[in-house]
C-alpha cells in the first residue's frame, strides 16, 4: 500500500507537469471563435471570453489515468518490495519541488501582469525540472552526499561566509545607489508630504530627525539626496545588528531567516507601497535603538554582567529621546525584565546580593529618563517630549469583512504570540523546565505588546509591522523550540528550507521588485520616470524667485505644496512649521495665530492654492491671506508675491 501511494503521488505530480506544459504551449495557439459568435459586433463580445478549461481538464485526467496504468504495469513485480518507497521518495520530493516552483512562478505572472523576472523564474523552473530528469543519477548522488555532510560538524568557515553573505545581501537589498530614483517616488506618489512632515520641515518631530540631519552634515549637508543616503545607511546598520542579535541568541540559520523576514515585513509590505522612505515615520527610525536594548539584555542573561543592564537603560533613554512612543514600549520591556529578575529568588540574589543594592535597580529604572532629558535638552533646549497624534482604533473584524486577510493577520495573531510568550516563559521557569536565561523572552513580548498598542492607536496600514523585532524574534524562538527535539539532520534541513522560503518571499515581493536597489528586478525604465520627475518637479524658478525677493537667513512665508524643498534650494528658513498639505484644522489655527502675531510683510503663494475650491482646512488660511495681503506685481510662473495691505 505504501508503494502504491508513493507511485500514485508521483503520477499526480507528473500529471500536473503535463497540465502546466499544455497551458504554456497553448497560450501561443490562437483560440478559434465559436461559429455562434460570428458576425456579432465587438462591443457585444466584451463579456464573451472563450477558454480551453474543458480541454485542460480532460488532458489532466487522461494524463493521470495513463500515467497510473503505466507505472503500475512497470513496477508490478516490485510492489511488495520494501525498498521501492525509499527509492521513489527522494525523486518524488524533487519533482514536487519543481512543480511548486512552476506554480509559484505562474502565480507571480498572473498576480503582477507578467513581469519579466516572473517569466524568467517560470522558464528556469521548466529547465530545472527537465535537467533533473535527465541527470537524475548524478543529482541523487549529490543529494546523498549533502545529507551526509550536514550530519557532520560543519566547519566554522561556513558560518563566517554566512555572516559576510548576509551583510552583503543587506547592503545590496537596502542601498539605493541612485538616490534620484527614490526622490522621484517621493515626489510623484506623495508630493514629499510625509517625508517633509516627519524629516525635513521644522519643527523636527523628536530626536530621530535631528540625528538624521546631524549625520547628513558629514556627507555634505542636509539635502533630500543626503537624507535618503543616511536612511539607507541606518537601515543597513540596524538590520546587520538585528542579524547578530538573533545569531547570538538562536544561531546562524534562524538569524538568516529572521533578518530576511524582518526586512520583507517592515520595508516591503502594502502599507508602505511603493517605497518605505515615503513614510520615514514607519521606517527603522522609529525603533532604531531596540536592537541595542535587547542585545544588552541578552548579554546580561547569558553572562550576568551588570554593565549591560546600565547600557540597556541608556539605550531605552536614547529611544525615548529619538521617538517617545516607541521609547515607552522599550521602557515597559526593561521594567518587565527587572520585575522578572526580582520575582525569582535565584536571579534576585544575583541582581541584588545585599539589600543595599536595591538602589541599583532604582538607578537602572531612572537612567532612561535622565538620558531622554539630556537628549531633548541637547536637541531642542526642552525637557518635554513630543507625543504624536492618535487616530481611531482598527477593527479586526472589519478586516475579515473586507477580505483584507493581511491586515487581519497583523491585527489578530501577534498579541496572541506575545501573551503566550509571557505566560509560558513564567510557567516554565517557575517549574524549573527552562533556565533563567529564557526570561529574555518576557521583555521581548512586552515590547511587542506595546508596539501592537501603537498599531491599534492608528487606523493606517502603515503601522502593520512598524517594529519587526518582537514578532520575528518570537517566531524564530518558538520555531527553534519546536525543532529542538528532532534529530540534527532534520533540524538543519528545516532551517535551510525556511531560509530559502524567506529569501524567495523577499525577492519575489512585488514592492521589492520596484525598489530602486542594484537588482532592478522589475526592469523598470527609470530614464522615462526621471524625465517626468525633472520636468514636473524642478523648483529652480521658484527658488530663484524667493531668493531674489528675500534677505539671506530670513524666515519666508511660503504657501506651497513643496515649500520645504523650495526654501532649502533658496537657502531661506521657513516661516510656517510643518508640511502644509498634511495640516488639519488645529494646525491651520496655529498658523493663523502665528501670522496674526508676527505679521510677515510679504507672503509667497502657489497660484493654484489661491484658486482652491471646496471645503478644505486651507480655506481659512487662504481667506486670511486674501483679506490682509495684496498683489505686489511680482510673480513667477508658479508663485505670486503678496505684500501686506496698509490697515489703519
Q: What can you see in these coordinates?
A:
With 648 residues, the protein is mainly alpha-helical. It is 66% helix and 4% strand. The protein contains 28 helices and five strands. It has helices spanning 2-26, 53-74, 84-111, 116-134, 136-151, 156-174, 179-190, 193-200, 207-216, 224-250, 252-267, 290-303, 306-322, 324-343, 345-351, 358-380, 396-401, 405-430, 441-457, 469-483, 488-507, 510-513, 526-536, 540-548, 563-570, 585-598, 607-610, 618-628; strands at 555-559, 573-574, 602-606, 629-635, 639-644. It has a five-stranded mixed beta sheet with strand order 2-1-3-5-4. Helix 11 runs parallel beside helix 21 (488-507), helix 14 crosses helix 15 and helix 24 packs across helix 25. It starts with a helix and ends with a strand.
Percent helix range: 55-70%
Termini gap: 102 Å
Number of helices: 28
Beta-strand proportion: under 5%
The radius of gyration is 31 Å
Mean pLDDT: 86
Which geometry do the CA atoms define? flat
Tally of DSSP β-strands: 5
User: What is the spatial order of strands in the main beta sheet?
Assistant: 2-1-3-5-4
Largest sheet: 5 strands, mixed
Q: Provide the structure class.
A: mainly alpha
Low-confidence stretches: none
Helices, strands, pairings?
Elements: H1 2-26, H2 53-74, H3 84-111, H4 116-134, H5 136-151, H6 156-174, H7 179-190, H8 193-200, H9 207-216, H10 224-250, H11 252-267, H12 290-303, H13 306-322, H14 324-343, H15 345-351, H16 358-380, H17 396-401, H18 405-430, H19 441-457, H20 469-483, H21 488-507, H22 510-513, H23 526-536, H24 540-548, E1 555-559, H25 563-570, E2 573-574, H26 585-598, E3 602-606, H27 607-610, H28 618-628, E4 629-635, E5 639-644
Parallel strand pairs: 1-2, 1-3
Antiparallel strand pairs: 3-5, 4-5
Helix pairs in contact: 1-2, 1-3, 3-4, 6-10, 7-10, 7-23, 9-10, 10-11, 10-12, 11-20, 11-21, 12-13, 13-14, 13-16, 14-15, 14-19, 18-19, 18-20, 19-20, 24-25, 26-28
